[in-house]
User: What shape does this take?
Amino acid sequence: MEHPFFWPPILTAAGPVRLLPNEGWVRKLMNLPISLTLLRIFFVPLVVVLLLTKGENMDLWAVGVFLLAAVTDLLDGYLARKRAQITTLGILLDPIADKLLISAALISLVELQLVPAWMVVIIVGREFAVSGLRSIATAEGWVLEASELGKTKMVFQVVAITVIVLEHRYPAVHPLGEVLLWMVVLFAVASAVQYFLYFWKRLDVRVKRRASRRPMVIRADEKEPEEKDVAAH
Assistant: This one.
């Protein structure tokens, strides 16, 4: 049986050399949903450059690229479910792409003095904490999937960042931007608590299950306890 990491041969003086994975393995790994997730990651430095570059209509370009990247977050999940291409790599990679996009945008807004730094610390800190839980869960053999509360937070983050970037062009939306940012902080804390509670509950069940399967060891110099014959007394 051929190994999935098959390397097609290329003739050299020393003989055939395999350089690339076979086509079937690449097609299975790099499906359309995962490609969209990777595209979202590639958008991250572009969003940062557009946000921090001063120029005419640069804020509109930044918002356009940011919203395009956010749309890929909706599309990759939808296509993965519709085309039955839900993979462990996709489940792990999708939240990482979201965190990179949102964290990069918020940190850029702090640099532009449009967002309080302490709020961004709470939001980004929550992202790192949840990522740590996902890493532990993966090491334990299960996946900590995104919750509905976390997905709602993502929507508020996208809308809040969009409104805040456009504040300079449309000052009337400034109060809305502040309200949305507070909503993001509240949802970030609430979803973090939800993830921690679910994580510890799942981990506790696994630990107890392992303990119940642990065999009882009796030393060679010890005898098994004998049952007393109550009727004989």
Observations:
- The radius of gyration is 26 Å.
- Helices lie at 23-29, 32-52, 58-82, 88-111, 117-140, 148-165, 174-213.
- Residues 174-213 form the longest helix (40 residues).
- Strands lie at 9-12, 15-18.
